[in-house]
Amino acid sequence: MDLKQIAYQYAKSKVLNDFIEYGGVAAAIRTAAGNVYTGISIDTACSMGFCAEHSAVAEMLKHGESVIQAVVAVDNDGNAVPPCGRCRELMSQLSRENLKAIVEVKNGIFKNLGEILPYDWKVDLGREW
């Protein structure tokens, strides 16, 4: 099963209550070790939620991994959606290797994380992270 299909299994928007809706976006990350971690978005009335990519990153870190090979996020219809700037930055800070990670930014369009994170401020620091 490919990453998009794995993510789509979880992309089912659900309303929890008047303040929270979740699962409108789901993400799947394949690590350099070949493991797949998933996550869902949580949207709240006062913007305290988080993106599906953040949720998948947390799962990955929980299992001691930080190097991403590929990532995709999908909406309720199974369409690939690009990661927001906050998610791009989070993934890039986990490992310099993640700048090479393949991201499906739109159905059938793939870029590496470095391409969609131009003018990376960390590169100019001249130190490893």
TrEMBL record:
<dbReference type="InterPro" id="IPR050202">
    <property type="entry name" value="Cyt/Deoxycyt_deaminase"/>
</dbReference>
<dbReference type="Pfam" id="PF00383">
    <property type="entry name" value="dCMP_cyt_deam_1"/>
</dbReference>
<comment type="similarity">
    <text>Belongs to the cytidine and deoxycytidylate deaminase family.</text>
</comment>
<feature type="domain" description="CMP/dCMP-type deaminase">
    <location>
        <begin position="1"/>
        <end position="124"/>
    </location>
</feature>
<dbReference type="InterPro" id="IPR016193">
    <property type="entry name" value="Cytidine_deaminase-like"/>
</dbReference>
<protein>
    <submittedName>
        <fullName>Cytidine deaminase</fullName>
    </submittedName>
</protein>
<dbReference type="InterPro" id="IPR002125">
    <property type="entry name" value="CMP_dCMP_dom"/>
</dbReference>
